[in-house]
Design a protein that fits this description.
mainly alpha
Length: about 70
């Protein structure tokens, strides 16, 4: 649900994981984005890399890290 809201109301989304523990990161990403292929988003498995990408590529934007 959170992924769908982000994809619906954001200009761009970086999808990543947060402490996946025993879950496969790819499964988490799949749950987040589902079949929402019509939206623009990047999948960056490493959370730190995703945050850096969001900050470096969107210097004049509001960035929400949730």
């Amino acid at each position: 649900m959170m992924g769908k809201i982000a994809l619906n109301y954001s200009d761009y989304v970086y999808v990543t994981t947060d402490n996946p523990r025993c879950e496969k990161p790819e499964d988490i990403i799949s749950d987040i984005v589902g079949a929402n292929e019509e939206y623009q988003f990047d999948v960056i498995l490493d959370r730190e890399d995703a945050i850096h990408a969001a900050i470096n590529e969107n210097t004049d934007s509001i960035i929400l890290i949730a």
